[in-house]
Amino acid sequence: MTDQDVVKSLCELTASVQDLCNTINSEYKFQPNKSRVELKARDVILNTILEQRSKGQPEKIMDWEEVKPTPICEIEMKNKQYAKKYEDFWKDIDESTQLEKETTIQAYTSAFSRFEEIYRLIGWCDADDEDPMFDKPVLTESRDLLIESIFGIEAYQMSRFGEFSEKSRMLFELSRLPRLLIILVRIACRQIYVVGACGPKKPIKKRMFDAFTVVRVLAIVARKLKGFNMTSLSMEKLLHQCYTRQVLKQPGDSDVDTYHKQFDLIYDCMTALDFTRKFREIREPLCSLFYMRYKSDSIHMLFEHVRIHEDATIGIDPYPELPLEQNMDSMFHPDIFAIPYLREFGQLNIEWTDCLDEHLKIYANRNAIRVFAHPTFFYNGIDLHQDKRDFMESTYLELSLTYALLFRPISSVNLRRLGQYVTAGENQQIPWNNCVTFNGHPIHRFTLPEDKEVNNNLKLLSINPLQSPTKEILSESFYRCSLPPSTQVAFDIANPFRAVKGFTKRWDQHKVTPTSMKHILDLAPNYPEDLKFMIISVMEKNFADMESFVQFPYFAPRLRRLKTYLDSRQPRTIRQLWYDRRDYRSWCIFWGAGFLGGFVLLCMLVILFVQLVSLV
Fold first, then answer.
1. 589 with 568, same domain?
2. Same domain, 260 and 368
3. Whether 261 and 359 share a structural domain
């Protein structure tokens, strides 16, 4: 055995041990003891519901004290300061063109005028809910406030580390339109209360707050979530902010019902902004007693209460995650996670999700794997459920790697083409992003002071989805997916009203569309940043013949379960046999022998035909 063999064996052993440690840690972290009795004892949400049911709703607001409102002039001054900060940020770096400005204004104008239709397309309420809460005048007037308060932090956060990838303000705002619409639809669907009945099976529904009030509450919540440590911020502080800024009127100490609904609004705004965990179609049952008793708990503690309640009261999910054991192999062949393999051999549908927790999970009854559609969500650097994260955290980098796995080509021709991009700058020891452009624009990355300066005469490679070789590289996997429904709806691509459908007729926020990803070319050259992130992830990374799960500390458990699912399947057709490359050596031997046998048979037939012709 040579020294190289020894080193290789030690590397494989190290990878196996590290993999085993990660698996054990993930099992310990994500699969704690979930005894129903123990969980129910810790479930303060259920306990407060039972207590309120037995004793009745509190007649007075606990620990009520009057909150002094801020003078109007100070409120207006503060609002102007927020707006000025956002304007000043873009003043020196904005590279927007007139065409980009016109495109962005047109996209927002179109979306706001179609909001009632969008509310029905990506919402989940009954068809007779004619009031979508928001309309074009409200949204148009509130546009700048919504963008600054919700997404301004993403621009500040990324630029602070020198990795702000979008220098055009207009394209930055254009790319946030799908997420903004999702947030608004989430709140509009939740903020409906049944206040009575008019005839059998026809409830009377009412909205407790007007659209402008909801927008201003959303802005306050978004700013505070982005500017506070989640261990020191509470729902009570958020509500008091709404009182001091005169957005909500503080109820008297005996008006428990209004107090409860104000807390509901704060909670709906927080969860609507969160794309990490699943947003429930029906709000978690947080009663008045719960809000009063735990209103001063931190945001992290609040969502820990919610998590325990969900674990203790697991109900019937029509589309549950497929329960699978984790595959214990230390290595995997990258081709098995590519879209063509998942679709042709795994017989899995590819569905987009607005929830990071569902990324790469397989769901029963639909035979589908879900892919997270909003990677730019990571730019805000905030997590309501754990310590804050930012774009430098491994999860953000891992997400990019998973896109590279899913959307990579599998043919040798396109892999060679991809290799030219992946290795760009290696010979000159120049950072990759300095040698590659996207559609003629620089790809900005975090750079160290000691990075080598770029030669201005260096020939740059361009990533252009409309042209070769990018078009061919993306055609094998990326273009075989459907458009994310929220993207199709936001930008009114290929008649979304007919294409976008829900799994069920009502009370399900997951949507699907048959519209091909190729329709993003209709948006050229103004591609949404989420999709641009995925494309760059593909062009930036190539994989060896065998890769280790070690490089996926966060997503490894999901990839392992996916591999278990794929390993359990057997090819049933010639097409599936062609895609089954789990054992690459056996695949080469089988198909090599098959092609050789076919060639020999063809030669024999030709010889036989020639002999027959000569006899005639």
1. no
2. no
3. no
For residue 77, the enclosing domain spans 65-282
Instruction: Give the distance, in angstroms, between the CA of residue 251 and the centroid of all CA atoms in the same chain.
Output: 38
Residues 387 and 525 in one domain: yes
* Furthest-apart CA atoms within the chain: distance in Å: 111
88/125 same-domain check: yes
Question: 302: burial class by Cβ within 10 Å (0-12, 13-18, 19+)?
Answer: buried
Q: Does residue 156 sit in the same domain as residue 263?
A: yes
pLDDT confidence tier of residue 313, bands split at 50, 70 and 90: confident
111 with 248, same domain: the answer is yes
pLDDT of 439 reads: 86
Mean pLDDT of 528-539: 94
Is the pLDDT score of 113 beyond 70? Answer: yes
Copy the structure tokens of residue 247: 């957005």
Helix, strand or coil, per DSSP, at residue 98: helix
As a whole number, mean pLDDT of residues 446-460 equals 54
Strand duo 441-442 + 436-438: pairing: antiparallel
Q: How far apart (Å, rounded) are the C-alpha atoms in residues 438 and 441?
A: 5
| Shared domain check, 259 and 129 | yes
Distance between CA atoms of residues 550 and 57, nearest Å: 52
User: 352 or 433: which carries more pLDDT confidence?
Assistant: 352
- The conformation of residue 228, written as its DSSP 8-state character, comes to S
Q: What is the pLDDT at residue 315?
A: 62
Q: What number of other Cβ atoms are within 10 A of residue 109's Cβ?
A: 14
Residue 291 forms part of a structural domain: no
Instruction: Supply the DSSP string of 353-400, one letter for each residue.
Output: ES-GGGTT-EETTTTEEEEE--GGGGGG---SSSS---TTSHHHHHHH
- Is residue 546 in some structural domain? yes
| Element containing residue 226 per DSSP (H, E) | helix 211-227
Q: How many domains does the chain have?
A: 4
**Cβ neighbours for 525, distance < 8 A, ≥ 6 positions apart:** 439
Instruction: Give pLDDT tens digits for 547-584.
Output: 999 989 899 999 999 999 988 877 766 666 666 666 66
Q: Is residue 432 part of a domain?
A: no
Q: With pLDDT > 70 as the criterion, what percentage of the chain qualifies?
A: 82
C-alpha to C-alpha distance for 374 and 397, rounded to whole angstroms: 14
